[in-house]
Amino acid sequence: MTIRATVWGENVHETSNQIVSEIYPEGMHAQIAKQLAVDKNIVARTATLQQPEHGLTHEVLAETDVLLWWGHAAHGEVADEIVERVTNRVWQGMGLIVLHSGHFSKIFKRLMGTPCALKWREAGERERIFVVNPGHAIAAGLPEYFELENEEMYGEPFSVPEPMETVFISWFQGGEVFRSGLTYRRGRGNIFYFQPGHETYPTYYDETIGKVLRNAVNWAFNPQAVSSDPSDAPNVPVEEALEAIEERGPKLHKKGEKGLR
Prior knowledge:
The chain is of the alpha/beta class and 261 residues long. It is built from 7 helices and 9 strands.
């Protein structure tokens, strides 16, 4: 079955910082999409902040099975309307993979309901990523641990809800540790947060990182996603009750009236 993935990139650092533009001349989103394309079952498209509706129109999201999100410098520039649009699609069953500094994105905080704050240090430290849940689909085919020679340190405490599953825990050269691969479910949608991916390092060229991303897309895909409005709260008329009942007592709502929100 073909999985339709959309890679959303902020595309700010790539166009404003020479170091980042040299590492990712086509944008980080394009390199992530190339990694996904290694899996012949995944068809990847890209979208960026600068496009109309941030590239996430109703039509694009309707054709997206799994959305990958990378943001950093312009979280506040993402329109609230688009955040709600993405939230509704996740509730319907669209998968969401939040990458690196996307932990502070509006969409991740909206779905987590917490500050999603953490400790950090930009020093090009070696990161050792331990697979603590080797039986998980996202960890399929991975070694016991793998390393990135240069990454930005993210450290605990990470103020997110208790995850459904912890797949990875990272150790950094400076001594800190971090829960670097966490899964959640909101509505019908599967969510994976994955920490590596600082823009001044070539993380998304790493073959093992690419395998994690492809595994995550396959895991997040829900073939039973729905298109109905997940926030709909229908008023069931008395005559449509499963068992025959008699209407009695005072009423606040008129027949057919929508519920208050």
